[in-house]
Amino acid sequence: MDLRLIFLELEIKMFSSLRISGTILATVSIVFLSNLLAEAQDVRFPSFPKRSSFPSDFFFGAGSSALQIEGAAHEGGRGPNVFLDVDKFSTQIEHYKRYKEDVQHLKKLGINSYRMSISWSRIMPDGTLKGGINQEGVDFYNHLIDELLANGITPFVTILHFDFPLALQQNLGGFLNHSIVKHYKDYSELLFKTYGDRVKHWSTINEVEVTALFNYMHSFDKVPAEPCQITRECKQAYVVLHNYLLAHAAATHLYKKKFQAAQRGEIGLVLSSQSFVPYSSKPEDVAASKRSMDFYLGWVVEPVVRGHYPKIMRKLVGDRLPRFTKKQRKMIKGSADFIGINYYASHFSKYEPNKTNINLADNYDSLASSQEFNAEGKTLGYLDKFGGAYVYPEGLYDVLLHLKRKYKNPKIYITENGIGSMNLTNPLIDNHRIQYIAAHLNYIKAAIDKGVNVNGYFIWAAFDTFEFQAGYLKRWGLYHIDFKGNLKRQPTAAAEWYKNFLRS
Ligand SMILES: *[C@@H]1O[C@H](CO)[C@@H](O)[C@H](O)[C@H]1NC(C)=O
Ligand SMILES: *[C@@H]1O[C@H](CO)[C@@H](O)[C@H](O)[C@H]1NC(C)=O
Ligand SMILES: *[C@@H]1O[C@H](CO)[C@@H](O)[C@H](O)[C@H]1NC(C)=O
Fold first, then answer.
1. Pairing verdict, β 266-273 and 339-343
2. Rounded distance between C-alpha atoms, residue 69 and residue 99, angstroms
3. What is the pTM of this model?
4. Which residues line ligand 3 (CB under 6 A)?
5. N or C: which end of the chain has fewer CB within 10 A?
6. Is the backbone peptide bond immediately before 461 cis, with ω within 30 degrees of 0?
7. Per-residue pLDDT, 465
8. Residue nearest to atom 12 of ligand 2 (CA)
9. Whose CA is nearest to atom 9 of ligand 3?
10. pLDDT at 357
11. Could you read off the pLDDT of 101-139 as tens digits, one per residue?
């Protein structure tokens, strides 16, 4: 579940409350919508970014994840993973069988890098070394990595992108159990040993805070009636994220100790990000927006940079927030060579002590709720009708400057950025996405000019991907997949634009 899916649901919630809240706002938004529609169709671009204004060694790529494109869920010796509705996933776009063709598509795009993930249960069917290694799975990634390199594309590999082996969930309770750290470390070691001669950019884990909040704190929106502080959910989310961080620390520690000097690669982690803008000028809303940043971004980045959770979290979460032992603190502090940022949209943040009014994806303990509209009824950015989301590239700029200021100017990759498509007359003409990507690139460039250490940009996604909750409701791929026509891959207008941008 990528964050945008949560937003999709958020949007649905917000829109239904908007409907209730009266005709005035509804009328305003209809006028606003028709303006945008006109704008999106003749697409006037404010200013196009240029490839030459980015460093020549900047990584420009596109991304995917194993579960969302591979298919072949029951083939090649792969074990079941926690996403049990694999049959939705099992056809997919058959990347497992068509990877050679797909690498050719990536090459045509002109990108110099590709973000992909490895399926743990394809490598270790039950997640443990004891359970055995699946050579067919190991070979698949060997071939894919070789194919990418032979075509001049640098692989950025995510070790865990949501999909871990089902047996670990059933036997241990997944990331609720600290003993999963050992298995994650074994799995990572096998990857470093097997692929580290060719893979130089590793990400340990993708979007841990999304898993903790969405799967645990909100339990897929089954909100318990009791005050959050005494519920299982409001404890488990912190334990799960803590164990994810310890897994990240164990793998990075191992890599740095045993592999980095010889393999000369880097290792970091990827989190989802957004900027929080105060809902009003009231001091409690201003404080809420700062708190939201600490509860969201700081929850992961602060331990990785400083070795402890943000102070405000320790104060408000109290004993439910696990502590790092001295040894763990040493291991996690400074553990990431880079921070990967996934960015889609931002929100207003409003002081909200009443948990009943907190939105899905928000942390109850932050005493803040995310809002699409501020006190004056304004939105952040414009509504992209074909993307079904508000577009606010300034938010990415804010996140980048926040990271620089607060966390000692870390090395950063934008590991995901993009917008879906829906309701297009011709699915290949996705001009709204060109507008989105161009605007975000302009703001990344502006951040680089301010000294932010951004080193790469990956559009989500290379191919249409099955989204964890929304399925194919929106199309995300630079390559459009024809599900009725032998899964034919066709470049969209945004793919052509990206190609020309990279060539210029
Ligand atoms: C955690 O995993 C261990 C095995 O390593 C198991 O014995 C224990 O029962 C698990 N704990 C929980 C709470 O599931
Ligand atoms: C919390 O909000 C709900 C719904 O708006 C309301 O019914 C309830 O009385 C509020 N509780 C407190 C303690 O303010
Ligand atoms: C737009 O697309 C969504 C998702 O496919 C669909 O639910 C909705 O009905 C469409 N709206 C219009 C106006 O066609």
1. parallel
2. 10
3. 0.90
4. 422-423, 473
5. C
6. yes
7. 86
8. 354
9. 423
10. 80
11. 999 999 999 999 999 999 999 999 999 999 999 999 999
Q: How far is the CA of 492 from the centre of ligand 3 (A)?
A: 20
Looking at all shown ligands, the one closest to residue 181's CA atom is 1
What pLDDT, on the 0 to 100 scale, is given for residue 361?
82
Total number of residues shown for the chain: 504
pLDDT of residue 471: 77
For 320-335, the pLDDT digits (tens) are 999 999 999 999 999 9
CA distance 418 to 398: 17
Rg (CA), the chain: 22
Separation of alpha carbons 300 and 273, rounded Å: 11
Contact indicator for 251, 188 with CB cutoff of 8 Å: yes
Sort strands 454-460 and 266-273 into parallel, antiparallel or unpaired.
unpaired
> Are residues 501 and 459 in contact, defined by beta-carbon separation less than 8 angstroms?
no
Phi-psi map region of 220: left, alpha, beta (phi>0 left; psi -120 to 50 alpha): left
Q: Given this model, what pLDDT does residue 358 score?
A: 82
Alpha carbons 311 and 47: distance in angstroms, whole number: 41
Structure tokens at 117: 């993930």
Dist. CA 474 → ligand 3 center (Å): 10
Strand partners, 417: 343, 459
Give the mean pLDDT of 221-250.
Answer: 84
Q: Give the span between the Cα atoms of 140 and 135, in whole angstroms.
A: 9
Instruction: Encode pLDDT of 383-396 as tens digits.
Output: 999 999 999 999 99
Sequence-separated (6 or more) residues with CB below 8 Å from residue 501: 48, 49, 50, 51, 441
Report how far residue 455's alpha carbon sits from residue 338's, in angstroms, rounded to the nearest whole number: 9
Instruction: Please check whether residue 438 is in contact with residue 45, taking contact to mean a CB–CB distance below 8 angstroms.
Output: yes
Tell whether the model's pLDDT for residue 15 goes beyond 50. no
Q: Give a three-class secondary structure readout of 39-90.
A: HHHHCCCCCCCCHHHCCCCCEEEEECCHHHHCCCCCCCCCCCECCCCHHHHH
Q: What is the mean pLDDT of residues 343-364?
A: 90
Residue 471 DSSP SS3: strand
Q: Tens digit of pLDDT for each residue in 147-192?
A: 999 999 999 999 999 999 999 999 999 999 999 999 999 999 999 9
Cα–Cα distance, 440 to 460 (Å, whole number): 13
- Which one, of 60, 58, 36, lies nearest residue 478 by Cα? 60
Cα 421 to chain centroid distance, Å, stands at 18
Ligand 3 centroid vs 423 CA: distance in angstroms? Answer: 6
Residue whose CA is at the smallest distance from ligand 1 atom 9: 172
Give the Cα separation of 464 and 326 in Å (integer): 44
Higher pLDDT, 157 or 27: 157
In this structure, how many other beta carbons lie within 10 angstroms of the beta carbon of residue 277?
21
Which H or E element spans position 499?
A: helix 493-503
